[in-house]
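User: I'm preparing a small set of examples for a lab meeting where we compare how different chains pack in three dimensions. I only have the primary sequence for this one, and I'd like the structure in token form so I can line it up with the others. Please keep the answer compact; I'll paste it straight into my notes.
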Amino acid sequence: MKFLKPDMSVINENDFTEKYSSLINIEETGISWSGEIINCLTSGHGHINVLIILACNEPLNSIFLNYLISFMVLNEQFIKDSDFSWHIIKLPCSSYGKKDILSGFPINYKHIKYKDTPSDTRALMKVIDRTRIDLLLTFYSDNNSDFSYYITDECPSLCKKLYKLLQKYNLPSKKPEFPFVKHLYKKGIYKIFSSKDIYDYYEKSLSSFEEVPHIPGETIECYTSLRWNNFSIRCNIPDGMTDLLYTEMISLLCAADYVKNSVAKKEEFPSKVYLCSLDNISCSGCCIDSKEDKDLLKKYVEENSLAFEKYFIDKKPVTFSDLEDYIFKREGTVTYTKDFYRDNCSLAGYMDGQHSRIGCLIHPKRTGGMEIREGLWMLICAPYEKCYRDLLWKELPQKAKEEFIASVKGTDWIDYAKTIYSSIPELYALYKLKNDIRRDHFFKDLTDLSLNNAPDIKVNLHLLDDFYSLNDYIEFSPEFLEENLNKFGQLFLEKCLKYIEKHYNVPLLSMEIPLDRLTAGHNIVNGNINYILFIPSHNKTEKTILMATSYDNYNKFSNNSPENSKTSGFLINLLVDLINSKKRDVNYMFSFFGADNNELLPLAGSFYFSEKLLCGLSIENYKIFPEDIICQIFLKDILQGKYYGNLICHIPVFRIRETLLEEYIYEKLYEDIENFDETIMSSIGDFAVEYTGRGKILDIVKNTDKVDAIISGIKKLESFRKDDIYNLLSDILNDRELAGITDLIRERFLFFEIPDTAEDLKESLMKKGVLREGLPFYINTHRSFTEKLCGLLSEEGFDMKEERIGRRMGFYPLLSLNISTVSIEGLPVKEEKEIRFEIFKDKFIEFLKELGGNFN
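Assistant: Understood. Below is the structure token output for the 856-residue chain.
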């Protein structure tokens, strides 16, 4: 077989494209990080699309590219007669990191901080978005010394052929990259994994998400699969080997043959849920906040429909890049608030001219099968998750279903969604549970906040049912308390405290947190009540010792957290002992904070409690103010090991939901607590560059030197008004580039609520209580109290050497009221060591006596 000269530049020569124009087309698809043009070579006109990504090191990349071109040129009849279209992209050798490029696709998952797409990755996305990919082959090499295949799914016949290739050419096979990776055949052939799998693996292995290594984004295989339900193979090739051409080519042809014969293309995308569309009515519950004004919602959805149609009228197909720009424009308007957009998706629109059916404007049925929603980081959307009401619907008897269908007959899409919210759990409770729980306030808490407030709604309904079967008697042994708090969480905590209130005649205050403090977007808020149990002194005084913890979790009622249960159980056991004591010189207030551990809106419970305390907390004939609190003792995850960190400083928590900019600065401050003021000022420019998108700027300017100048200039700006941005750019760009880039950057700045100046941001943070004059960041717990408790515990073998930064901890709001605080957090340890409950409690009581709380 003849070879073209092994020089990549050959595909850019006009005479080459003219000579083989009937076979090969070359099109520019993007600009690399280094400023090189990324081309896509296409050959053939079949309906099965094969995308080949060459991401090997040189010279293997160029040699294999030329080999493929030679194959197409010398096999003209095969190319014309086969049912394939071949698309080939070779990543430039100067790309800043091929692994990051292939794993830098959009993702929205847990704590993965996807921010921007490398320009090299955007070039790949452009091809993937506009072409229905049936087979993706990625040839990748790094410093590994072994050969391996990663494949979409089980395919025994193909795996057998590929394994024979490894044996025939005596290629060493490497172990999988991670221990969770599944073997599809013998050594060297594995199942493709996603970045979500990597995150879950690290999350289970490490103690906190801060320790999870950087994950740039989703893999190209998973991104492509989401859109086209295609088949993918990644070949990991030993670096430095250039004699693998036949292996690579045969792998390609075997995979193509498999796809042609075995993989059926799916033209239809049936709904995964039944309630989404019922008798020509559609539900908007996942996309629209049905509690908003009905006329406003109808107007908003109509505007969405018209804006989408106008923007995409000449753009076919809908691509990720276009959608990103569309959302910036649509949600960048001042017609609605940012909170409104968070609760009401700008891609919810009408599916018919009569405005009776609502749906997603980029549902796969409308985009030719492309699933693009999951990667849009600007949206809170999980298109593959099951509707929680629909999970209950499946198990309802026919009688219940008929009852529901009759109740929604003639309703519009808003009332239909509201009825799904309320009626489906009611019907499930009526027909499927042992006890009638529908009048219980916990049932209302479970079903009323939002559609997404209880992803385990079925589990929680059955848990509530089991809870109603419990015996009324409560014993206060540590074992009994821990077992039931761990199983029933808030349900059992409230039961315990009400039992104590009744049997020991002490006041219990159930402080329900207002709904507007709990909801901020589609977040999950659990534990919407602060419980405060007050034990008065024997001789009346306002002097009070406060003991507190945060009890809520992500699973609504059940804790599923032994550490949380141990802490709450310890406090309940201790408060019963204090009630039974014969002498109490001070009051004791036990506070169990709810709604503290939510990721989007932390410390809602403890902040609300602190506001009530600041105004004077009335309990029976007492009124307690912050100056009456001798000490706050905050406990978290205690009695799980011998290590107890004494928390002596804390990073403040935003009292309202952060903007993306504030969240970014929050992360920066956490890393650089010593230089808080300097960090805030410098972070704005860094954020602007990171979120505006270097890749998008490069796409327009097409000059890396100019891009570098723009980025360094933005970082030095102290004012971000349009005129200031224009003045910066006018010294760098020509007139054609200037307008587009100025508008792009300003549009992004407005979208992300970047203030006009750095000083504006500082002032807004000070108003929120995040920053203060003087020493705005370090807030010390009471050192002498902390050292005293540490000393007492150390006498019994507790290791108190470690000092930690408390982040998003419930003791902060009272610290801000200048209340002396001791906070103890337990840490897990690997070695076995028995922690005796009674010894810990004895030392704790000794500490209370030191504070002035003498009792016998």
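A couple of notes for your slides: Residues 615 and 625 are 7 Å apart (CA to CA). Confidence is low (pLDDT under 50) at residues 1-15, 264-271.

User: Perfect, thanks.
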